[in-house]
Amino acid sequence: MSENLFLTPGLARADHYAELYPQLEALTTTESDLTANLANTAAALRQAFGFFWVGFYLVKADELVLGPFQGPIACTRIRRGRGVCGTSWAEARTVLVPDVEAFPGHIACSSDSKSEIVVPVFKDGAVVAVLDVDSDQLDDFDAADQAGLERLMQLAAAWF
Q: Which domains are delineated in the chain?
């Protein structure tokens, strides 16, 4: 695959995820480097949807450590159970937050972030990373985002 995304303007998000999946699959299945695959995935998601921030946090010992991302600088380390990312890791589930100000213990890496979705990446039943996606709009994520991102993170499991 070339290093270009082919996206149809005006599609609903669910359709954009369906269009994006085979392109990311083609791009990442021939690449064995974890960092390259995470970086291209973050870039593709930001390009496709215009999200404010897209990135990965990797499980390293007892904390999440910032990995490849697209957007403004971010928090570097997050403890298990802390904030949206730490909660997703601790509970091994996707966490969708319509208003980050209403989430108990939210970590404000940027005051411009208004809503967030965090999706865990599983390898052999354990969370090895989380995908963190932030929007500068309230209530910007829904079931289509959750389904699309969870499918992409199933693909990502093979990179670890």
A: 13-159 (3.30.450.40)
